[in-house]
Amino acid sequence: MTRSNRPLTTLLAAAIAAVVGLTLAGGPAAAAVTATPSRTWGTNGRVLAIAPVGDRVYVAGDFTAVTDPSGRSYPATRLAVFVPSTGRFDLGFAPAPDASVTTLAVSGSSLFVGGAFTTIAGAKRKKLAKLVATTGAVDPTWSPVVDRPPDTVAVSGSRVYVGGPFAQAAGSGGVLAAKPWVARFDATSGSLDTSWSPTPNDRVLSVRPADDGASVYLGGTFTTVGGSTTQRGISRVSATTGAVTAGFVPGNTNQTSKPPVYDITQSGSRLYLAVAGSGGACTAMDAVTGAVAWSKHTNGNLQGVQVVGGVAYCGGHFTGAGGFDNLTRYKLAAVDTATGTTLPYAPVVNSALGVWSMAADSGRVYIGGDFTQIDATPQTGLAVFGDDAARTVTAAPSTLVAAPGDAAVILHWDVPSTDGGSPLQRYRVYRTDDAATTWALVGTTTGPDLTDTTAVNDTTYRYRVTALNAVGESAPSAEVAARPSAAAATAPGVPGGLVATGTYNADRLTWSTPASGGSAITGYRVYRGTTSGATTLYASTSGTGTSFTDTAVTVGTRYYYRVSAVNAVGESVLSPEEWAVPTNGLPSPPVLSGTARIGANDLTWTEPAKDGGSPVTQYVVLRDSIRVAVLPATTRTWTDTAVVRGTAYGYRVKAVNAIGSSPLSATVVLTGQ
């Protein structure tokens, strides 16, 4: 079982139920989200927690940047805000914690954050923090502490619940004291509530305050709570004292067993559970008695479950034939809550582990993980599945550039930030040669470029572009002007496909050759700056080579680049901007994950996002800071069989190349089973 696997929010399910009207245990599946995700911005690393609130969706995990559909990256370290209506991230929200964030919860204007960090938004906070939800600023008075990174944070009224592998906790300004597995703090002062004291005998992975306000559901690896052996994996305790609630006797949650519960969602009179164990299970249970209504066995752990429109969406590590309920499913499946029928909802989520977190609002299901594609849709780290009401036209195309030629104008633009939940079908290019009172359709295209060959020389045109999906036509892009000329030659076209790559003590630029404009290209000009949108002429090259290596750099500094082409007539329009950060030659850290099973802990990790300019030659695995394995570069898995049941082990991995070793990965804690 992994430490950083918690789906997040806790107040949201009740709000969802109120909006959708789920007051009974189930009902007809009146609304369902599409199996095709929206094409939006994503992340460059694993998403471990998601918390949607209106048109702001808080996203957290191990990523260091967010990416737009055109492939550009923007700094965003481990905690960011996604805006569903635009498909973009809010780049002004940047608390930048110094280590991974594993869980989130929102209450009013406050965002509660848990993880492995020791600083966030410039303030020292040990594994827990309270932020201003709109700005990301730290609340200076709220500073509880736990001694191990939490798995789950939940908020109910004035109470903040925290669960995880910790043994000690302290309120704001207090001293660590014994408080294993689960604790409760005041949401305003951060004081530790010692009057609430449930006693699970092992780790709490999920906390869900009940809709009735009188009790709290706990999920985890525990086998008893308050000495009761009936409370195995799932428990209902008093919100006043923490004592086990009488009458709640959970049934078997995964076939004939009661294995760990990773996530709990309440909808009406039922709980919906993400269960581990021998494979895993998605299970519906009576919220009062614990009687199981239905359970769907899987061939991998469940990580999250959400209910929207009478449908339970179940996500996790299951895959392939027999992956879910003996059917072929890849990391995501859906069940009619009323009948327990598995629905023909079968998006294919790639990557070995796929889904690590889930959340929902009234019309959307969000999943987070380490995937890069869902069916044919490229989508990294975060995906949004909307219902019919949530689908819209695409966002407007952006960054339209028009390069005039001889009786032609070459146009290109960026892919919209979101397809509105319906796949983009084509673009329409319009132009006008008058006072913009009439716009004529020039042509349509399925890609983000078009050459207008009907343009008349010595005429000034203005252009704009729209995008179409099944919902309709987007708003137009910003307008640009161009004036084709019958001159024997013109300035070259815009260099295309600029790629900037940080390497060992240098940045490497490459691009593609543009149209010459009728006069041979004699060289290129490279523009550089340390602030986006503020590049100046930096270097010139001669000849037709389409690459440049910038060695006058400082390691760790972000440089922004643009390139233009030059011929005898003049200089082209500058290319779109790209950036790179020169490295010290060391690889970036791998992203480590793991799963505990009986008698062994299985580790897997990603290839470093950057090799530092020198190929990775081996990986080194450490357990509790002691090296336990050295593996070739072709191997990115390792199994630790020397484990003791009930003992927690901290694993890290680093990559090695000819120059040296990468930083260690984030720690993954696995408990022997």
From TrEMBL:
Pfam family for this entry, one: fn3
Annotated SMART domains: FN3
A biological process from GO: polysaccharide catabolic process
Sample GO molecular function, one term: hydrolase activity, acting on glycosyl bonds
Domain Fibronectin type-III: 393-488, 491-586, 587-673
Repressor as UniProt keyword: no
Alphabetically ordered keywords of this record: Carbohydrate metabolism, Glycosidase, Hydrolase, Polysaccharide degradation, Repeat, Signal
Keyword Repeat carried by entry: yes
Signal peptide span: 1-31
Protein name per Swiss-Prot or TrEMBL: Fibronectin type 3 domain-containing protein
Lineage: Bacteria, Bacillati, Actinomycetota, Actinomycetes, Micrococcales
